[in-house]
Amino acid sequence: INDIADDMNYYIGTLIVSRQDNLFEVVDGQQRLTSLYLLLNCLGYEVKNTLTFACREKSNYTLQNIQDLLQMNRSKLDMERIEPGIQNGINVILQEINKFSKEQFCDKLSRVVVYRIEVPKNTDLNRYFEIMNTRGEQLEQHDILKATMMGYLTDEKDKAIFQRQQG
User: What's the 3-state SS for the chain?
Assistant: First the structure.
């Protein structure tokens, strides 16, 4: 929150995803996505609740009930099922965004850039995740350029052709 400059884009990183039918499975960038989801909810935006975690029941319960948590409707919540890490994240976000007016902060937030990169079909996601998280390297410039260029394509067929051609 404090790193976002007032007058320039802030590149928060990448979101590596795999398309599964009409949904995207996050391969890498889960914390980044969760933070943005929490931030938008803390700012009072209605965000469609489509963020879920495999095998993390407490996290799912917390996200499903985020509005009651934000409004301190603890009587409606089973506090034993609340994920403490998410609750702490909410507290930090609320503390930080209260330093700004909502309009100021939303203006800053509009400069945040996230690159979504879709892995090719039939990628072994477990292996991909392992490689991405053990090599300790940042995304290459050509990966960022590719993601930017794909952002201008609107036709899914064109995107698929571009993805195949670029490897």
Answer: CCCCCCCCCEEEEEEEEEEECCEEEEEECHHHHHHHHHHHHHCCCCCCCCCCCCCCHHHHHHHHCHHHHHCCCHHHCCHHHCCHHHHHHHHHHHHHHCCCCHHHHHHHHCCEEEEEEECCCCCCHHHHHHHHHHCCCCCCHHHHHHHHHHHCCCCHHHHHHHHHHHC
